[in-house]
């Protein structure tokens, strides 16, 4: 029965409550023109997600669309009037009045249902910017991101939709991946410099590896933890900043990690 209900809903037009000039977001897709980046992480970055689906059907959107919103005030007024009549009798008997409750239509729309996700060009642009930033953080400094929107006029059963649906595709051209050429540590405290140099073999930053901002963050955490273990209790990873020089040529990066002295007095 549940599957039959979903099949019945699949034949309904999910755009029937979409206003003029708006487009229901049907799907996003990320097309990566090279291997290396994590596609799942890229998709998670997108700022706008389509309505949730159950067995391929936007069930919660259909629940939202099921009641006619123009008739909800009428249904609510009837329900409230019924509660008023019952409460008059309850009060006359010395009982507490019953509270007003949402109508079934309101419950379907506001509790079960999910409002249509309307394509927002601002969110599309922000998604493209975030994808580009992610690629930069992962070492693709010349990555380009292009977003395209395809409008769909017909449903899967070939009927014409009330309003077109939109599919958004983000095409990512990574360009060359930059690798680490050199790593230098700049420390203004001789004691800290000695400790860092003594543990240099434990570094996570290796020459020849692809530049990866996540690995840089892990390295900052590693150094901060080691220094705290050595008695620098106020040393945090925020005291380690880095400069990435990408002008050295050959799609390489020279890294300079700069460590500041903790302001708090060590004991």
Helix/strand layout:
Layout: H1 2-10, E1 24-32, H2 39-45, H3 59-65, H4 72-92, H5 104-112, H6 121-137, E2 144-154, E3 160-173, E4 179-187, H7 190-198, H8 213-229, E5 240-245, E6 252-259
Helix pairs in contact: 3-5
How would you describe this structure in keywords?
267 residues, alpha/beta, 3-stranded mixed β-sheet, 8 helices, 6 strands, 36% helix, disordered N terminus
What does this structure look like?
There is one protein chain. By secondary structure, the protein is of the alpha/beta class. Helices cover 36% and strands 21% of the residues. It contains 8 helices and 6 strands; from the N terminus they run αβαααααβββααββ. Residues 3-11 have low confidence and may be disordered.
State the share of residues found in helices, binned by percent.
Answer: 25-40%
The order of strands across the largest sheet is 1-3-2
Total strand count, please?
6
Order of helices and strands: HEHHHHHEEEHHEE
What is the quaternary state of this protein? Answer: single chain
Main sheet record: 3 strands, mixed
Rg on CA atoms, Å: 29 Å
Q: What would the principal axes of the Cα set say about the shape?
A: elongated
Judged by helices, strands and strand pairing, the structural class is: alpha/beta
Number of helices, counting only DSSP H or I runs of 4 residues or more: 8
Low-confidence segments: 3-11
How far apart are the first and last residues' alpha carbons, in Å?
71 Å
Overall pLDDT level: 88
The proportion of residues in beta strands is: 15-25%
Structure, briefly:
The chain is α/β, with parallel strands linked by helices and 267 residues long. The chain has eight helices and six strands; from the N terminus they run H-E-H-H-H-H-H-E-E-E-H-H-E-E.
């Amino acid at each position: 029965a549940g599957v039959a209900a979903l099949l019945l809903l699949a034949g309904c037009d999910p755009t029937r409550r979409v206003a003029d000039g708006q487009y229901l977001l049907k799907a996003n897709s990320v097309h990566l023109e090279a291997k290396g980046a994590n596609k799942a992480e890229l998709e998670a970055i997108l700022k706008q997600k389509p309505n949730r689906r159950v067995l391929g059907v936007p069930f919660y959107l259909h629940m939202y669309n099921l009641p006619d919103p123009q008739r909800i005030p009428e249904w609510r007024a009837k329900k409230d009037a019924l509660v008023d009549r019952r409460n008059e009798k309850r009060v006359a008997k010395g009982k507490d009045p019953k509270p007003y409750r949402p109508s079934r239509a309101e419950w379907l729309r506001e509790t079960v249902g999910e409002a249509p996700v309307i394509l927002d060009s601002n969110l599309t642009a922000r998604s493209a910017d975030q994808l580009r930033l992610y690629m930069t953080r992962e070492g693709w400094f010349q990555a380009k991101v292009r977003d395209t929107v395809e409008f769909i006029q017909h449903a899967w059963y070939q009927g014409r939709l009330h309003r077109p649906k939109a599919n958004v595709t983000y095409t990512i051209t990574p360009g060359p991946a930059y690798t680490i050429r050199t790593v230098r540590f700049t420390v203004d405290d001789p004691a800290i410099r000695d400790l860092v140099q003594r543990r240099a073999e434990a570094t996570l930053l290796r020459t020849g590896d692809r530049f990866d901002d996540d690995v840089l963050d892990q390295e900052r955490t590693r150094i901060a933890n080691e220094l705290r273990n050595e008695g620098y209790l106020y040393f945090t990873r925020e005291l380690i900043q880095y400069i990435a020089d990408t002008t050295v040529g050959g799609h390489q990066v020279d890294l300079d990690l700069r460590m500041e002295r903790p302001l708090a007095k060590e004991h």
